[in-house]
Amino acid sequence: MPVSPSVPIMSLALGAHIGQQNLAMDEMRSLWTRCDDAGLDWISVWDHIYEAPPAGGTIDHFEAVATLAALACDTTNARIGCLVFCTQYRLPGIIAKAACTIDHLADGRFELGLGAGWHVPEAHAYGIDFPRVGKRLSAMEEATQIIKSLLTNKRTTFEGEYFSVTDASCLPGPVNGHLPIWIGGVGPKRTLRAVAKYADGWNAAYISPDEFSRLGGVLDDWCEVENRDPNEIERSINLQFYVGADQASADAQMAGFKKQWGDMADRVSGGLLSGTPNEAIERILEYKEAGADMVNVAFRAPMDQAAVEAYLTDIAPAVRGSSLKSS
After folding, report:
1. What are the tens digits of pLDDT across the range 9-33?
2. Is residue 149 domain-resident?
3. CATH code: domain of residue 108
4. Is the CB of residue 23 less than 8 Å from the CB of residue 301?
5. Cβ atoms < 10 Å from Cβ of 244
6. What is the mean pLDDT of residues 226-235?
7. What gap in Å lies between CA 46 and CA 27, rounded to an integer?
8. Looking at the 3D structure of the chain, how many domains does it have?
9. Does the predicted TM-score (pTM) go above 0.85?
10. Nearest to residue 97, comparing CAs of 59, 65, 56?
11. What angle do CA 80, 81, 85 make, to 5 degrees?
């Protein structure tokens, strides 16, 4: 049964955000099955057509909806989701139908992430309209309203500038009667207000604990404007995972991070989980102090398999123990 965002979360939930790139399907399925068996609270994938960071469509990459169907069938315990579906890539009604289908495959464990997208190269390559960010955010807000209504009401009619539906139904509905909606992004004016208006959860990616705390305060302010209880909104952070099982491996992982991200490294380094397992534990707990209810580590192949095991068998249990003591 999915955790309701309205229920206070006393300990820190831990997850894995698995990039479906540079991995054979059987390797990816083995990875998320291992994560589920190890007791992670959350497993997600991302919604890209090309690899991330961008490399001109030169790396093997699987599509998100079909990947999530496999994830739903292969796991039994963790909440699963996509952080986040780009609302430029599919009509809102199609997203709602896919979400309900995956939710039934997952026996009610699916949670839907939505966002305005950022990956310009893949959109242009596939002929997808990708206007400036302001218009994408407006389209995302329309899509969120349509999807939320389709997942809640028997019939939905909506006429917007970007999307419309007419007397539309979405049957069957979510397994548990309610399917949590997350909005991802860090924009303080548009994105966080949309979270306060429409979402059950907020996900930020690759920012520091201080910035996560600051933006959490902005979200609280928007909740006051929108007459929303801020405690109803679950808050999570995605962190780059470049941890090494020992110091030598940690140094090699950092070199790999800089090579993989290139000119974009500085942009995401604030949300970097690096160093040894003990250093990773301390860093994760900083995010709990900054207001995170959940921390997801982003696995991006090639990975240090010993470090992945360290996350599952050493880091996660230690964080949970420290988190409970501090609650």
Report:
1. 458 999 999 999 999 999 999 999 9
2. yes
3. 3.20.20.30
4. yes
5. 23
6. 98
7. 17
8. 1
9. yes
10. 65
11. 170
Tell me what pLDDT residue 303 has: 86
Sequence-ordered list of residues with C-beta below 8 angstroms from that of 215, at least 6 positions apart, any chain: 186, 188, 192, 204, 207
Kindly tell me if the per-residue pLDDT of 7 is higher than 70: no
Quick count: other Cβ atoms within 10 Å of Cβ 95? 25
Range of the domain at 125: 13-238+290-297
Q: Is residue 138 part of a domain?
A: yes
**Measured distance CA(40)–CA(38) in Å, rounded:** 6
pLDDT for 321: 86
Would the pLDDT of 2 be above 50? no
222 near 191, Cβ under 8 Å? Answer: no
pLDDT band, residue 323 (cuts 50/70/90): low
Tell me what pLDDT residue 324 has: 59
- Only one residue has tokens 């430029």, namely 88
* Helix and strand counts by DSSP (H, E) for the chain: 12, 11
Asked whether residue 261 is assigned to any structural domain, the reply reads: no
> Six-digit token pair at 188?
């303080």
**Domain-embedded: residue 113:** yes
The amino acid at residue 140 is M
CB atoms within 10 A of CB 172: 9
Asked if 206 contacts 240 with a C-beta cutoff of 8 angstroms, the reply is yes
Whether residue 202 has pLDDT greater than 80: yes
Q: What angle do CA 322, 326, 327 make, to 5 degrees?
A: 120
